[in-house]
């Protein structure tokens, strides 16, 4: 029953050439409510081909079945500024997974395997479709917030910082089942596709709600940047991954990002124009990402000491 609380939203009105304005308005209102209450929802009829999702997942599983030696052929070069390619979480990390990270294909940064043979083609195609879905969701959010037409599109028009991760989580042990510790994403919108193993959970009002995987559904969660820009009108979703016992978990996560030199702050439409005080100090996106990266490279002894968006929160006391 818990999964029913996470809205599933049909985006087909945005692909219908017939007059669907009333349907679009209903979708925008449902998304506005989901973003205000959860920062988390699922989408169907989103424009990403279902056969591509299935094919990409099977190719990802095939890659992670290879030996460590074969997978390490896609390991990022030491000292590379962008760690595209294959990586595995260090033993000391509480997160228990391995992954391949890729940036937009046109950047030339990607280190993708030649085996399975169709891996690169499928991942690049999936990246392209996720990008289009991100632009659509961003446009719907723009209208749901009552912002000027194409405001978010024009603000966030550089796609060079987007990235996608194909992930493999190791089976849980008898004593430990953490896949990824509870966190919020720093970007604007994240898409997640998980295999039948599930494991993704979202926190609402202090309760963890499992997101049950279903073929064709893409999970959408909002990140810190949108929470800041809307001055907390929209929520950044707290989520985690719990590894299942006796089986691996596979997923894709696509991060629809902001270009690093962009200044992020509460928009005037949600502060001075409506007589509300800004709840955050502004920051360059790349600076916040650097702080978040340091959480991983130099983890704090206490999880509560990790830097998150509260670092920029303005105290009202």
UniProtKB/TrEMBL annotation:
Ribonucleoprotein listed as a keyword: no
GO biological process, one term: response to molecule of fungal origin
A single GO molecular function term of this UniProt record: metal ion binding
Domain of life: Eukaryota
Database matches in Pfam families: 2OG-FeII_Oxy, DIOX_N
Record key words, sorted: Iron, Metal-binding, Oxidoreductase
Record has Oxidoreductase as a keyword: yes
Residues in Fe2OG dioxygenase domain copies: 160-258
InterPro entries associated with the record: DIOX_N (IPR026992), IPNS-like_FE2OG_OXY (IPR044861), IPNS-like_sf (IPR027443), Iron_ascorbate_oxido_reductase (IPR050231), Oxoglu/Fe-dep_dioxygenase_dom (IPR005123)
Family: Belongs to the iron/ascorbate-dependent oxidoreductase family.
PANTHER family the record matches: 2-OXOGLUTARATE (2OG) AND FE(II)-DEPENDENT OXYGENASE SUPERFAMILY PROTEIN-RELATED (PTHR47990)
UniProt-recorded name of the protein: Flavonol synthase/flavanone 3-hydroxylase-like isoform X2
UniProt organism field: Coffea arabica
Gene: LOC113740326
């Amino acid at each position: 029953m818990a999964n029913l609380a996470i809205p599933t939203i049909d985006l087909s009105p945005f692909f219908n050439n017939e007059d669907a304005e009333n349907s679009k308005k209903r979708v925008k209102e449902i998304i506005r409510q989901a973003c205000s209450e959860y920062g988390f929802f699922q989408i169907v009829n989103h424009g990403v081909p279902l056969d591509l999702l299935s094919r990409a997942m099977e190719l990802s599983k095939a890659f992670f079945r290879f030996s460590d030696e074969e997978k390490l052929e896609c390991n990022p070069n030491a000292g590379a500024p962008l760690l595209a390619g294959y990586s595995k979480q260090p033993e000391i990390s509480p997160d228990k997974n391995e992954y391949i990270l890729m940036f937009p294909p046109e950047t030339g940064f990607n280190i993708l395997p030649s085996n399975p043979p169709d891996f690169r083609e499928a991942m690049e195609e999936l990246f392209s479709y996720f990008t289009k879905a991100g632009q659509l969701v961003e446009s719907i959010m723009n209208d749901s917030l009552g912002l000027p037409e194409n405001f978010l599109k024009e603000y966030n028009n550089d796609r060079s910082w987007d990235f996608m991760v194909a992930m493999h989580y190791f089976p849980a042990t008898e004593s430990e089942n953490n896949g990824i510790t509870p966190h919020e994403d720093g970007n604007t919108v994240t898409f997640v596709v998980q295999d039948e193993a599930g494991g993704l959970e979202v926190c609402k009002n202090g309760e963890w709600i499992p997101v049950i995987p279903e073929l064709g559904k893409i999970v959408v969660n909002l990140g810190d940047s949108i929470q800041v820009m809307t001055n907390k009108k929209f929520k950044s979703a707290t989520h985690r991954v719990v590894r299942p016992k006796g089986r691996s978990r596979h997923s894709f996560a696509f991060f629809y990002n902001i270009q690093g030199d962009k200044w992020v702050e509460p928009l005037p439409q949600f502060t001075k124009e409506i007589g509300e005080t800004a709840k955050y100090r502004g920051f360059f996106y790349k600076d916040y990402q650097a702080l978040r990266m340091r959480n991983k490279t130099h983890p704090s002894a206490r999880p509560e000491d990790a830097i998150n968006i509260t670092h920029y929160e303005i105290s009202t006391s």
